[in-house]
TrEMBL record, chain A:
Keyword line: CBS domain, Chloride, Ion transport, Membrane, Transmembrane, Transmembrane helix, Transport
SMART domains: CBS
Chain ranges passing through the membrane: 67-89, 144-166, 200-219, 225-241, 253-277, 326-348, 368-387, 437-458, 464-483, 511-536, 542-559
Annotated InterPro entries: CBS_dom (IPR000644), CBS_dom_sf (IPR046342), Cl-channel_core (IPR014743), ClC (IPR001807)
Protein name according to UniProt: Chloride channel protein
Annotated compartments: Endosome membrane; Membrane
Keyword Ion transport: yes
Membrane topology type: Multi-pass membrane protein
One Pfam family matching this protein: CBS
UniProtKB/TrEMBL annotation, chain B:
Stretches the record annotates as Disordered: 139-159
An example Gene Ontology CC term for this record: lysosomal membrane
Name by which UniProt lists this protein: Transmembrane protein 9
Pfam family, one: Tmemb_9
Family annotation (PANTHER family): TRANSMEMBRANE PROTEIN 9, TRANSMEMBRANE PROTEIN 9 FAMILY MEMBER
Family statement: Belongs to the TMEM9 family.
Cellular location(s): Membrane
Protein source organism: Chironomus riparius
Signal sequence extent: 1-21
Keywords from the named record: Membrane, Signal, Transmembrane, Transmembrane helix
Transmembrane segments: 102-124
InterPro entries: TMEM9/TMEM9B
Amino acid sequence: MDDHNEFQMTTSNSTEFTETVGFSGYSDFHTIDWQKDLARDRMRHRYIIKRRQNSLWELIKGAHDALSGWLCVLLVGLVTGCVAGVIDIGASWMTDLKHGICPQAFWLNREQCCWSSNETTFDAGNCSQWVTWSEIIVSAKDGFGAYIVMYFFYIFWALLFSSLAALLVKNFAPYACGSGIPEIKTILSGFIIRGYLGKWTLIIKSVGIILSVSAGLSLGKEGPMVHIASCIGNILSYLFPKYGRNEAKKREILSAAAAAGVSVAFGAPIGGVLFSLEEVSYYFPLKTLWRSFFCALIAAFILRSINPFGNEHSVLFFVEYSKPWIFVELLPFIFLGVMGGCIGTLFIKANIYWCKFRKCSKLGQYPVAEVIIVTLITAVIAFPNPYTRMNTSELIYLLFSQCGISSGDPICDYKRNFTNVNQAIEIAAAGPGVYHAIWLLILAMIVKLIMTIFTFGIKVPCGLFIPSLCLGAIMGRIVGIGMEQLAYNYSKNWIFSGECTQGDDCIQPGLYAMVGAAAVLGGVTRMTVSLVVIMFELTGGVRYIVPLMAAAMASKWVGDALGRQGIYDAHIALNGYPFLDSKDEFQHTTLAGDVMQPKRNEGLAVITQDSLTIDDIEVLLKETEHNGYPVVVSRENQYLVGFVLRKDLNLALANAKRNFDGISGQSLVIFTNTSIVQNLGPAPLKLKKILDLSPITVTDQTPMETVVDMFRKLGLRQILVTHNGRLLGVITKKDVLRHVKQMDNEDPSTILFN
Amino acid sequence: MKRFLMICCIILIQIPYFINAQSYNLYEDKRCKCICPSINAVLNNTDSTERILVIANVGQARCDCDSVILPKYADKIKGKEQEFCPRCECKHENRNTTVIKVVVIIVIWIISLLSIYMLFLNLLEPLLNKRSKQNYQEHLDEDDASSMHQDPNAHNLPMVNVNASRSNVLNRVTNQQDKWKRQVQEQRQRIYDRHSMLN
């Protein structure tokens, strides 16, 4: 019965206070108390089980409750798949709008417009149905005038799309800018950012990412897709009170949603689950693993049925490989990994430096102007080079794929003769087209690297998976072509003689591109397992796991040696989000007594268990701003009784004043069971119900190592510090974060916290 | 009300596109795309970069050289089919033009709706507000005050007004809108002014 009452009280609490503290009972920019929230859920669960025997209706309600987790992730998967389909189709259409239009059916992009046209030329995929802007204006496809018109329209559309994206973000949902993964990581670690996963963020982020990808900026939609999926998870969790009203439980749904986000971004469901586990999630029980798996599966299935690219896959750059690789190639793969680590670290350092500059200088005051300038520069530089002019996903696809008969790009300009029937493709000397393409690709790589440094962090939705994949793919392809020509020219050499028999195509530059892409992405994000699985799901070939693993590992080693943090951790640190990284180790010898508040000579705000009046407590609440107060036996004997939260105290006092007669400012507030016989004065107010009798306590001699570990692993909000059983002070998560920063010689005041 | 009118306008603008779309039925939803080297490659064994592209509307099972290329070029490569065909690459592709059409039109709609609403908020509303503030100075002040305090019961209080229910709904909508605007303003300050987040 006691359970029952308490459960009802907590629910009524949350309904009454939704206006000020939200459904879950936490204010904006506060950390959640995992232990308490999970305990609350277990209590609710026990209550439902107890009621289940009462009637059939209660039984159905119990079943619904048990099912609601799966139901919720099912819905999240469905909606995520649909939204991803809309984004993919919209972005591919709008990207081609920069070049021309399909007048007969304006909603088709170039590829779709020339769907059933036999006259498709191989160079640019143009056909008579597809009309370029130059054809409309100067009625010419080639020539100087046409080039100028195309150039102009390319820049015009890019500027239009990006400025629209920046304005929409600024006017409707400023939270929609950026990639969102650092913030999602922080939220999943137990932080509240109101509105970050809201309706408007979802809409603006979806529309904004379509616009900014179409603008040809050096960014991708994969990171924002994780944010979009998390928004969907958050919004849909409100349909199920079990998750909507309990922040700790809601994070289980958000973890699953993040998995679905990567799943649709790369068409890699397992990679998505592992990404959620390795990179974003903080609290990831097995139950969440299975739900993430299911959610990712549903999302991938839905996107696959929408078939946005017409290739039966959910990403544009899906390629299928089956050729074996030879052992010697492991060396260039590791070299690619090392290079990937270097490029990744260089990118992180430069990007963080630029973001710091933006944060502190006047540049930060002109977000829209910055977006427009970056777009203008990108468009002006990108258009003359065919490899930067094309959509980045298309470029990645081109670099990943093998040269066959169907590929007409200069990068496949080999001196091949198609005389041998059994081997359509064989190793051959590179033609002039290949060398020309290599120069263009090197230029493209430099441009992309520099532009991405300036682009990641501007105030439009932007992710960096695609740019880093692209950088790596270019690097890998160039190394691959080099290896291929080496094998062709020195096929008699002992290195190649075993596997590369005469004319056999034993080296595939496409595979190198893929390994390079994995290496740079690994260097930037410091992912390993999930990265390899994502890449392997992209190719559908199990035999390339070892090269990918070698590259990812080398890249992580080199990256970690050059700079400690991945890009997301670096951005978390830059913004000062309260994120206690479970990867870091706390290696200092401080004690709990040094960190706790208050310091030795200040007073501690406590509540005594049976000697304060309502007025006293109200004064205390007014004078201090703590989120909770320890309750002690008496001022003289500060033996700990329990811990009471500020919001509970506020609520209980307001309730008592409204509902009970005879309660006045002079009534005593009693946190004990024993009722003191007291005839004079107004009736006492018993508040034992709101008292947490089992607060986590440590002694003042506990090493901070242990305390930090407790905060990390138990997800605590505060710890009480005692000495000889008497209360000395409190350590909150904020104190811990500050202390960690201070010990690392960083400015502790930058932490974002209320 | 204003939003509703706006939506109506947009629908009217978009209707011609829909009619146009209905009457258009030229594009197929599946194709088989075959690419082969030049026929010269098998006939006189000379190297040539010219290639043949054939797109046919056949099912997945029949998407190969035998049923797509040979009927078209049978006379040219007589007897050399077995040599020519292995060099061709055939790929079957599927799409759904209806889905593409609907999605693209939805995207255009959402973007134009948002842009118009943005223009409205930035250009028209300050003007309208100025005018209505002159007329209903007191009323608006009172409204502002109540929403500032975030009193959850504000709209449940008995209204003195005769058509209370209507103004109640309207109030609630404006309250919600004000609340949302305040939230966006807060986010904007946090990101653009104080730079405390998302840099």
